[in-house]
Amino acid sequence: MNEVVEIENVSFRYEDHFVLENVFLTVNEGDFLGVIGPNGSGKTTMLKIILGLLHPSSGQIRVFGRSPRHARHLLSYVPQNAQIDRLFPVSVQDVVLMGRLGASKAVGRYRSSDVKVAHKALAEVDLDDLSDHRLGTLSGGQRQRVLIARALASQPRLLLLDEPTSSVDSRVELGFYELLKKLNETVTILLVSHDLGFVSTYVNRVACVNRRLVVHRITEITGGEIKGDLYDEPMHRIEHVCRI
After folding, report:
1. Could you tell me if 93 and 116 are in contact, meaning their C-beta atoms sit under 8 angstroms apart?
2. Theoretical Cys-Cys bridge with 99: which of 81, 111, 150, 174, CB 3.0 to 4.6 Å?
3. Residue 63 to residue 71: CA distance in whole angstroms
């Protein structure tokens, strides 16, 4: 299996306070990894280290076999609670085209090939019929899909999402995980969440972070009789409590 992310004995601290300590993690191509932990446990910090926005205090990290800084063009990131001015007159297509910045060689304007990539990304999130709509007229779930399409427009090999369902209701959340399952057929996904005590069948593994990190395997509930209160889907449970 090809390693997408290799984190070896990484620690990170702000002054004298360790946020991450002696972290080891391997993410393989095709993985759908869920990352959970309490507030302040280091989840977002780990994402920023993978993105090359922060540098570890010690240890090594490789992304696609190179330093994070040199692998940024292979990654896309959907931040937590992205600030969107709903009154700003920007179209869905314009937002998705922002994902071509840095990926396109065009200067001053987008090429026709960039527009085609943007439309393909919108089709992947089932919003191609809304490309000309103003972003502010969309529902919360639709706006989140637009942000996913913007990330996909850079044609990444690794998609990182930081609590992407925190602002949507449970019914929309189910559709969102269905979308990620489909995208995972071609893109490796690392999904951060505040609490994935019960997750659907889509996640391969769960990394539990609370300064240190432990990866737990997921076990399907026998027979699938138990359903989540909010999802009419078979559920998985994490075998261990996150006590690190």
Report:
1. no
2. 150
3. 6
Q: Tokens 């070896």 label which residue?
A: 8
Contact between 193 and 40 (Cβ < 8 Å):
no
Using alpha carbons only, give the angle 177, 182, 188 rounded to the nearest 5 degrees: 90
Tokens of 27: 């993410």
Over residues 221-243, the pLDDT tens digits come to: 333 332 332 334 554 555 555 55
- Tell me the residue type at 140: G
Is residue 20, in this structure, part of any structural domain at all?
Answer: yes
Judge contact between 71 and 63, C-beta under 8 A: yes
CA trace torsion 128, 130, 136, 140 (10° rounding): -60
**Across 5-9, average pLDDT:** 97
What's the structural domain count of the chain? Answer: 1
Cβ neighbours of residue 42 under 8 Å, at least 6 residues apart?
Answer: 12, 19, 20, 209, 210, 211
